[in-house]
Amino acid sequence: MHQKLNDLVYVRCNLRLQQRNRLRQQNHDPINLETLDDHSNWVLEESPLFLTHEEVETLRNDLANMSIQSTSDDIYKSNMDEYEDDDVSQPPDNTMEDVNPNESNIGEESHSFDEEGLPEVYPTLSPWI
Length: 129
Hints:
Blueprint: H1 2-25, H2 33-38, H3 53-65, H4 72-83
Region (Disordered): 77-129
């Protein structure tokens, strides 16, 4: 009797292990398709577009033809517009223009401005950390 009980427990455990392995190997879809039919109203109907096709094409053409780079003349004119108002006093003379704080390069020419009189900027990139 004891042997039969051991055999029965052994067979029962093996059957459960086999069933567990089959379930692990079985590909199943976690989406229950039956519940989608009940809740299909969440899918929106096709709504009309806010812009017509012609308006979208016009916007695309405008964006493609748009220039985002200003010329140096535009920068010069915008800077001069600030000082042309009668109410605004003229900028004072820059007395520090010829001062050279680095005594080791006295007599050398300053190269901090380009040929148009705009300051030369050399950006430095720091490494990402």
